[in-house]
Predict the 3D structure of the following.
Amino acid sequence: MLGYNEIRAKKYIELNGEPYEVLSSDILRKQQRKPVNQTKLKNIISGRVVEKSFHQSDTVEEAELKKRPLKYLYKKDDEVWFCDPNDPKDRLSVPYSKVEKELNFITENTTIDSIIYEDEIIGFKLPIKVTLKVTEAPPSIRGNTSGGGNKVVVVETGAKITTPLFIEEGDVIEINTGNSEYVGRA
């Protein structure tokens, strides 16, 4: 059990029977009132963000989330297939809707961590940065900087990333998975 002042950013709590990630927390004390912890919580299953205030007498349970490494094999129709990295025979499929965002940053045979809550996969944890090869890049025209000096390229997973003008087809670039932004050349 966590007290109201132990509910901090990057912790996982259980509220109304569902797991939430604490995005931010601020403990405020207004004049002569008792302190309040104002938090922003993200529902891990639905992705919905809510604001909730916890008072001194409130306690919440910490969510028990497990991580399991899985190797991405392939996508077929509306299913995405994974296997245990050590045992390729141990395969499982996940609906495409649960992995849609993550597939923009992983290639076949890449190992990522799955987040498990009550024996069900509810999401995936990507590394902060990934390196991908640029497969399509429009030609950069000298002097074309009126639009900010950026262009949109397509990487090997099919994701579209905004990069500086000097990035060419065949370059390997680093991408921040949190905000889908170009970081630099690899």
Q: What stands out?
A: Residues 51 and 81 are 35 Å apart (CA to CA).
